[in-house]
């Protein structure tokens, strides 16, 4: 049978040649950077405009416009391959640009509360990165990840309020403590997988939530733990505003930048892990455990490392939350948060950038839907259901 080949589009080819050109051509490199920078600036401008909108009618129009723009971009990227190629080529430039845009956000935010919401989005994204290690890298179905978040938060709160440990020690200790307790899930995980592993992790989450509710002498029970110390750095309290070049930022910006730094560090660690020999071993285990074990890989070590790494990131996120809010109670750690985390990882296509972006959307979207207070939970629930139906099959699958 004769193979049919489509001829390359002359317009796309000419533009691609101009933008990509020779790898040593200064003009082609400048053109590709300019294109990537234009895309980044346009996306950031859209995000800032959306975050500042409060009127219901304008918000509906904004969402419709962004949806139409995304559809147009999708078809354009499929029509002109150079658009994707340029963005892939300038990935380093885009990453640096995104970090710089994130650093500038407190200067453009519409009030302290918006800065606080974005700080919470960063904490949620750090948690999602930890879950992505379990599901996306190792293929381990974890439906109770909120347990590590709660363990890290309460461990940090107890270290701070009862032992007087500094915040800068509480954060790594909380991560290590959560990683250590993840062994309680890791050993059963050596014997089960798929749906059964999901049930084990789900049961672990319920046990942790019940323990922090009933161990009143340690966790305060339903009364919670209050008076958790705020961090300070070089004599500057994180409860004090930031004054920089005549500009005063609200104290929430302190926590925002702290969370941003931890998120960037967590993303770098996850990226490095994904490219390491451990990441390749996780991929082999995720695709076929029997074949991976037959090739000489230790599934025990791989699963312990995956659960420990994910739990450590979740524990650090919990520690940041505890010291930012200053108060903990069991109602802060609901099982529904694990469902949101799963949806974030699936929506993010199991990729670091996608997971972070999805976490921001899932944190900001409920806040923006407050304009539709009578319908916002229904709208959010339908959106969540649609995402899980369309892309949720991989959560309990070992295939990538």
From TrEMBL:
Localization: Cell membrane
Protein name per UniProt: Amino acid/amide ABC transporter membrane protein 2, HAAT family
Transmembrane domains' residue ranges: 30-53, 59-80, 92-109, 115-133, 140-159, 165-184, 196-213, 255-274, 304-328, 340-365, 377-396
Membrane topology label: Multi-pass membrane protein
GO molecular function term, any single one: branched-chain amino acid transmembrane transporter activity
Keywords for this protein: Cell membrane, Membrane, Transmembrane, Transmembrane helix
Lineage: Bacteria, Pseudomonadati, Pseudomonadota, Alphaproteobacteria, Hyphomicrobiales
GO cellular component, one term: plasma membrane
Species of origin: Bradyrhizobium canariense
Chief location: membrane
């Amino acid at each position: 049978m004769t193979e049919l080949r489509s001829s390359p589009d002359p317009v796309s080819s000419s533009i691609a040649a101009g933008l990509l050109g020779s790898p040593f051509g200064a003009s082609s490199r400048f053109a590709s950077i300019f294109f990537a920078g234009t895309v980044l600036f346009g996306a950031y401008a859209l995000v800032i405009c959306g975050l500042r909108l409060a009127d219901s009618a304008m918000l509906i129009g904004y969402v419709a416009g962004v949806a139409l723009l995304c559809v147009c971009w999708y078809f354009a990227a499929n029509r002109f391959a150079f658009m994707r190629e340029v963005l892939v080529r300038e990935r380093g430039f885009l990453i640096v640009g995104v970090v710089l845009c994130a650093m500038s956000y407190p200067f453009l935010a519409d009030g302290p509360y918006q800065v606080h919401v974005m700080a919470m989005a960063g904490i949620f994204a750090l948690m999602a990165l930890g879950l992505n290690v379990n599901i996306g890298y190792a293929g381990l179905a974890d439906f109770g990840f909120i347990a590590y978040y709660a363990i890290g938060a309460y461990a940090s709160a107890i270290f701070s309020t009862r032992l007087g440990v500094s915040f800068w020690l509480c954060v790594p200790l909380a991560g290590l403590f959560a990683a250590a307790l993840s062994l309680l899930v890791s050993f059963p995980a050596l014997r089960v997988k798929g749906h059964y592993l999901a049930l084990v992790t789900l049961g672990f989450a319920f046990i942790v939530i019940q323990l922090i509710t009933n161990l009143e002498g340690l966790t305060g029970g339903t009364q919670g733990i209050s008076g958790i110390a705020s961090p300070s750095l070089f004599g500057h309290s994180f409860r004090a505003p930031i004054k920089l070049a005549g500009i005063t930022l609200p104290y929430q910006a302190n926590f925002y930048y702290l969370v941003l730094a931890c998120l960037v560090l967590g993303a770098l660690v996850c990226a490095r892990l994904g490219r390491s020999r451990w990441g390749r071993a996780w991929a082999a285990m995720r695709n076929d455990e029997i074949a991976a074990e037959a090739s000489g890989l230790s599934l025990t070590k791989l699963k312990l490392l995956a659960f420990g790494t994910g739990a450590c990131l979740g524990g650090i996120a919990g520690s940041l939350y505890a010291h930012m809010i200053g108060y903990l109670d069991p109602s802060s750690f609901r099982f529904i948060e694990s469902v949101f985390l799963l949806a974030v990882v699936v929506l993010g296509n199991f990729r670091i950038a996608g997971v972070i972006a999805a976490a921001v959307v899932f944190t900001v979207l409920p806040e923006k839907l407050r304009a539709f207070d009578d319908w916002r939970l229904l709208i959010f629930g339908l959106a969540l259901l649609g995402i899980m139906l369309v892309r949720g099959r991989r959560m309990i699958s070992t295939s990538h």
